[in-house]
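Lab manual, section 2.4: Encoding a predicted structure.

Procedure: take the sequence of the chain (734 residues), apply the prediction step described in section 2.3, and record the output as structure tokens. A sample record is shown.
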Amino acid sequence: MTQAALEQENKLIAQEYKELLRISYQTLTDDDKKLIRSAFEVAVDAHKEQRRKSGEAYVFHPIAVAKIVASEIGLDAVSIASALLHDVVEDTPYTLDDIDRMFGETVARIVDGLTKISHLKKDMNISQQAENFRKMLLTLNDDVRVIIIKIADRYHNMLTMDSMPEHKQVKIASETLYIYAPLAHRIGLYNIKTELEDLSLKYTEPEVYYDIKSKIEESKEEQQAYINAFSDIIDNSLKQEGLNYYIKGRMKSIFSMRRKMKTQNVGFDEIYDKFAIRIIYKSDAKNEKFLAWKIYSIVTDHFTPNPVRLRDWISSPKSTGYEALHITVMGPKGKWVEVQIRSERMHEIAEKGYAAHFKYKHGDQKEQGIEVWLNKLQEALENSNSNAVDFVEEFKLNLYSKEIFVFTPKGELKSLPKGATPLDFSFNIHTEVGMRTRGAKVNGKLVPLNTTLHSGDQVEIITSEQAKPNQNWLDYATTARARAKIKSVLREEKKSVAEEGKEILRRKLKSQKITLNEDSVNKMVTFFKLKTSLDLFYRVGIGSIDNKMIRDFASSYSNAFISFFKNRIRRTPAPEDIDKEEITSKYDLLVFGKEEEKLDYKLSQCCNPIPGDDVFGFVSVSEGIKVHKKNCPNAISLQSNYAYRIISAKWVDSTQEEFKADIQLTGIDNLGLVSEITEVISDNMHVNMRNLNFSTDGGTFTGRITVVVKNKGILNKLTENLQQINGIDKVTRL
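Recorded output:
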């Protein structure tokens, strides 16, 4: 570079620095400015030799990221300094110790977190990607600012991605949609989330992006005219009330238009709510809510509201802190328009997310806001022993979910994702409450645990020391937190059954003169077509691999000498991962409806479902039940046109399936007999009872009990134990 060009560049760098201080959202003290100045000098010095792909000096990137952090996200001086230094440790001679010494522990910790994230392996396949995401979220434990600066870094990279090779653009854009956009949404950075989505679309589906973009450009004037027409109608009424306000229109983002076109299967012109109108008013804290409803009443005086579409986020703000009143009204020319009413403070929170919250809080409270939010994120991360893809999917499940607000019996308000059940609510209160849930009352009425809750419900959880999670709970719970906890309890429980199973197997094999060792276990796993040794022990423990099956194995094992030669010709390799610490499901049986009945079915040709897929049954006229995948191309039309013929279906593990059996008891009636019988069934044998019916006649009694058991072995043992009870004469299975 020539001397003149260098001087010009240095001038630009200095200008950028001044700009950074000028646009900072938080008020900077002299100490803050000193901190930012020294971070800036270190960044300029550290990156002096580096250039970006586009050819400009590398230091423009950290400055740009710091500007996003300072003005668009509105964070403090520590964050601005950390943003300036975010690439220093990774790419330059400076070490973390240098940063610690010069800027203190907090900045060093944030820079370290950012360095860790960028060191994550950049592999293409999804589970690696998910694993990276999980690690990244776990660095949140250190400091949430790490993630926020990382989002700003990604945002700037997306803005300057034109000079990269195409395959990298697509990879980075997809990763942004998969991870960073949902995160920005969760933090309440709605503007950045929208930008990230639009920029990603520009690289993943360029034709679509530019097509929608040009159509939006074309309709700009028409849109402005519409906003003016809308404003003119209510302007006078608002002015008469002496309100200080302005009205703005906001076009939906390109990405959300694309999503609408896809889900509703319509063209650009057919989307009816392309934009929203915002009324932003000035107000002191005291009158804020009052004025919002006043504006609401003026708007609805002039335009007919859609009563179903009222959203009051002022009385109960979203968990991201978002506050506003949303109404959809029939505007001029018979078009539905969404009107968002918010004060300047609410508008700032909507634009800046958490940072704006702190601006309106003082002293200790400033810190608490971020604490509360950190704890929420923490919960999603706490149970990170599930596999990474599940973790990401469940985390996202809770990120984008709409919220409902329900009350505790004492009237406290709790926010839960839409679709939550009483079981989710109980885990939301406390893990211990969740684990001990026995039943639930909604609005004073006893309801099943899988009832869907609605905003405004009052929920009371009934607990019991004896209650504990069972497999069905996974069908009842929808939130990531509840599901993770239930899974881990069930895993532990299955492991303890497997421990017992291992001992039983050791004894049974011993009687067949076989030692339980690696070889015999591997052969048994293969023999019973299972995946892991734990599967084998568990199935012996619950009795689904019974004595006869073990004898069959033993005879084939004893003839091993003969089969040894046969096997030389066709060696059966031992399955990999045989010692994995997990009990897998054998998806080999389809059950239908709420009662999980076994019915005849055919797998449909259009989508060829395989065991384990999400499926549903469709009752056809001539061919009985046809099973389709939930994402089958024909699913939507079947579900909308023939909803009454759809039955729910799911794959289960037939060895863990439960069966109903009726037992009849006869004997001599004596005091306390019923409690003895139920004690044997439910306490000692841990078998569930569904039905109980006793009648006495002249000192004798007859009883019928419906029990739910996993297999015949358990049922036989149960009848034996019942036979032992004093006073019982006969126990028969009906």
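Check your result against the sample. DSSP finds 30 helices and 20 strands in the chain.
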